[in-house]
Structures are given as C-alpha cells and as structure tokens.
Design brief:
Layout: H1 40-43, E1 45-46, H2 47-51, H3 68-78, H4 89-95, E2 106-112, E3 128-132, E4 135-140, E5 143-148, E6 153-159, E7 183-189, E8 192-197, E9 201-206, E10 214-217, E11 226-233, E12 239-245, E13 249-254, E14 260-265, E15 270-275, E16 281-286, E17 291-295, E18 301-305, E19 312-317, E20 323-328, E21 332-337, E22 346-349, E23 355-360, E24 366-371, E25 373-380, E26 387-402, E27 408-414, E28 420-426
Length: 437
C-alpha cells in the first residue's frame, strides 16, 4: 500500500476533479460551504424532500452555473484512479459481466451533514459500521461518532486525540497507552469495536463501556499502518480480532484476553483479510495482484486466486461460504467459487475508480461494492449478480455497511463541504398479497 507522511489529520486525497472547463464554481466555493451550526432543516435531506426535487446530498444545483448531468460528465472524464501497476482497460471491459442496471433494491431515506465522514489514507475506506438499522458508527476527525437515525442526533463514542489508557490489564496481552491516534480502519461486531491506526495501533472498545478495553502498538516498523481490522469466528466458535498491517503481518487476537494468539507473515503489505463463515479459510489481499486463500488456523497458503491486475483492498464472503468477492484497484470486483478456483466466476466493473469496500447482506440476498468515489453498486445475488442498482453521488466514500437485519444501507461521504452520512432502506415487497390478484 502506498505510504504517506501524515503528520496532520486531514484528507490526503487530492481533489480529483477540476471543473474549470465547466464553470468557475466548485463545491469548495465559500458561498456554498455549510458549518455544523446550521439548522437541521438546511443540512439534512429527507426522502420527502428528494421526491419534491431536492438533491439527496443537498447540493444546490439551481444556484450553480452547471447542471448535475454536466458535472457528472466532467467528473467521469477527469477523475484520476490511482494505479500501482500498468493496466489493460480494454481487456478488463471485455471480461466484465453485463449487468442490468436501473433496479431499486434500497430506497433513499435520509442524509445528514451533522456528522461528516473523514479518511486519513486515500486507499483505506473501512471507516463505517452499523449495529442496527438505527445505529451507525463513523470516523469524524479524531472521534468515532455514533449516529442515531431515530433521534437524529450524534454522540462521541471515542476520542483518540487524547491519551488512551486501557481500562484493564489482561494476562498474556501487551497493552500500552496511546495518544493522538489517526484511525485508518474500523469494524464492529457483537458490541465490540476494533480500530486500527496510521502508525500501527490497535484499539478495542466495548460500546456499552466508557473506557477502552485494550490498546497497543502492534509494531515499531516506520511504515506500519494498520490497513484493516476484522472481528471473526474461529472453527470452534471463539471470536477473534485480525489486524492486517503494512509490515506484511496478520496478527490474531483473542477477544476476551486480547492476547496475541498467532502471527502470519506475507511477502507484501497486507491490505485486507476476511474469514469464511465457517472460520476455516482466510482470504489475504495486499500489494500483489493475486489473492491468497490460507488456512485460517495455520496461515498456510492453500490456493492463489489469479486474475486481478493491480493491488487489492477489499473482500467479503457470501454467508453460505461458497462465494468470495475481491475488490481491486483495477476497478473490478471478482467473484470466486471456492469449488472451482482456477478462474473467477464473474467480473463486475465500476464506473470511476478502485473498488475499496465490499459487503454482503446477512441473508446473502444482496452484495454492495463501493468505488473510491461517487458510486455504490448493489447486486441481486439471486439473479447471479446480473441485476443491479447504482447509487450516484459526489464525494470520496469513507465506507459502506448494511445493518445486521439487512434493512438499512449506510454510506459515509468524505467531502470538505458535503461530507455526510447517507441512509437507504430496503424496499418491501408484499409478495403475499400477489396471490389475491
């Protein structure tokens, strides 16, 4: 993974767009910048307002000298996708699956700018999690914020700008006080939050407790960003935390004692890992075009998945354990059937840039993949991924997540002016009524 000196917490991403050939205005123009002090009526956008013509992000296109369509056209032409390896885009397009777009699986529900997603590394976008259809957690500067979609209010859950002292000492674990952590990755499962830091930190906190349960610096390596954290289940049912770092290490921790149980070493920076639903297989992705399938207990490589053309940063397993999805900087997501790994089952392409986040609903019905900016794609798995919904917005995407009950989809947008949290609700189909007609 590309490394940057990040001494101050700010967006490292460039403004990839340039609308000078469209008009003198841009979204960073001070005439349109909103502060957190503005009223909800101005900063928030409801589904009713969108039906009446308001932009889902509250962008005042009527006050700009270019239309949304014109700006989208310019953005598609000018956005610069980061590439680590030379690509053959013609080859990619020819291999991609034809997807019937225009379906609506999730409807827009609400957008708030009272919380604003932020990112600290342009390649790392797992900075959003949901514990219910009403509760989302996101990174905002040096804070982990909780957003309640019922109360329409935010609350700080963790402040990492101040010294962080672990609440307890656990036998077999090595905890230490941390300070001014820049969170680069985050996940939540069963009320436990794990967060990785820009300088190799790991922080664990139970959401119902005020204090941090455990924190440490995983490595002294100068280039040791914690690229990903995952909370997963081992074959025997025990819960584990996996931390993937730029130093090529994947470290496995027990969620009760926070002791380090294992450490696997790979020849390149590890950007992402995901464990199969049965806990037996571990997908390892990083600064290599191949994805490795390893034994989750020993770390031994059992298969190499070849097909991507650049570095990978995202992966997710279908709940039935048969399909693994991998996201890459070559702008594609590949689907792998573990019963035949000689080549990918399908290739799904994006519109503008790298595939940074992939999520399945807990029932396995839908898969969502987020590009680095502007587009989130939702696929109906029951149609063999041939039916899709495209959510079109503007801004860098800090993360996406489905609620555990599949009813909500949250999208974190990182933008200096229009940074926000978008909420979509799953469409309800009263199929039982169809029998009466």
């Amino acid at each position: 993974m590309a490394h940057f000196d990040n001494t101050e917490l700010e967006y490292i991403v460039d403004d990839y767009y340039d609308v000078n050939d469209v008009d003198d205005h841009s979204f960073n123009n001070s005439d349109f910048e909103d502060s957190f002090e503005l009223s909800k009526a101005k900063t928030d956008t409801s589904a009713v307002e969108v039906k009446n013509g308001k932009d889902i992000q509250g962008i005042p296109w009527e006050r700009l000298n270019f239309t949304r369509d014109k700006y989208r056209e310019s953005r598609l032409k000018q956005y610069k996708n980061y590439e680590s390896l030379p690509l053959s885009h013609e080859q990619l397009q020819g291999n991609c699956k034809d997807v019937e777009k225009g379906h609506r699986f999730y409807d827009f529900q609400f957008n708030t700018r009272l919380v604003k997603s932020t990112i600290v590394h342009f390649q790392l976008r797992n900075l959003l999690a949901a514990t219910s259809k009403h509760d989302a957690y996101l990174m905002q500067n040096y804070s982990v914020m909780h957003w309640s979609s019922v109360r329409r209010k935010s609350k700080e859950v963790l402040n990492v700008s101040k010294p962080i002292v672990p609440a307890m000492k656990y036998t077999g674990s090595v905890a230490e006080t941390l300070s001014r952590v820049q969170i680069s990755s985050m996940t939540i499962k069963d009320n436990l939050m794990a967060a990785g830091g820009f300088k190799g930190e790991l922080i664990c906190k139970h959401l119902h407790q005020k204090e941090v349960a455990f924190c440490t610096k995983l490595t002294a390596d100068k280039n040791a960003i914690t690229n990903a954290v995952d909370i997963c289940q081992s074959p025997d049912g025990a819960m584990r935390i996996m931390a993937s770092n730029n130093d090529g290490q994947v470290r496995v921790f027990d969620t009760n004692s926070f002791a380090c149980l294992n450490c696997f070493t790979f020849p390149w920076s590890v950007n992402n890992t995901s464990v199969s639903p049965d806990g037996r297989l571990l997908a390892v992705l990083g600064d290599n075009s191949d994805c490795l399938l390893t034994d989750a207990k020993s770390g031994k490589v059992v298969n190499e998945l070849k097909g991507h053309l650049d570095y990978s940063f995202a992966s997710a397993w279908h709940p039935d354990g048969r399909i693994l999805a991998t996201g890459n900087q070559d702008t594609t997501c590949r689907l792998w059937d573990i019963r035949n790994l000689s080549k990918s089952l399908s290739v799904l392409n994006g519109r503008i840039g790298a595939i940074r986040v992939i999520k399945f609903t807990s029932d396995g019905r839908f898969m969502a993949m987020a590009e680095a900016a502007d587009f989130v794609h939702i696929f109906d798995t029951q149609s063999d991924y041939a039916m899709g919904q495209e959510i079109d917005m503007f801004g860098e995407i800090a993360g996406i997540c489905f609620s555990p009950d599949t009813e909500a989809l949250f999208i974190g947008v990182a933008d200096r002016t229009y940074g926000s949290l978008l909420e979509f609700n799953r469409r309800s189909y009263n199929s039982y009524l169809d029998s009466f007609f």
